[in-house]
Amino acid sequence: MPADPAQSAVDLGWMAQALRLAERARVEDDEVPVGAVLVAADGTLLAEGWNRNITEHDPSAHAEIVAMRKAGQALGNHRLLGATLYVTLEPCAMCAMAMVHARIARVVYAASDPKTGAAGSVFDLIADPRHNHRVAVEGGVLAEEASSMLTNYFRAKRAKA
Q: CA-CA distance, 27 to 149, in Å (whole number)?
């Protein structure tokens, strides 16, 4: 958590919203429950997204990408300068690099991804010093809630199989 208690409270609020979106992914679309919220530097909501790759037959429709696409369209710009992305699962390599290219200022994630995490768990693409842009990373915000949601989703899927 950040040292600033006010920022911690803000992070918890936006992550709670991302968890609600993750639940929508599961309930409405039977998708892996991952949600994302993109917030402007001034604290206003830019866009939201949840996993849509199965529903849309689009391997790139991860929650983060969905939110960044919506924000880019709304702003009329592919650069999302100063924005913070809240996501319930550590970004994969595709999403991490999209954040670098979009010039996201900060990513805050809940649960670490021990298989494909690219923000420090398996890979650390975001922090690679060869990039011309740096994205600040904060992990573990409401991690238990997000991990539980993911675990329960996959257990239910295996039970049906």
A: 12
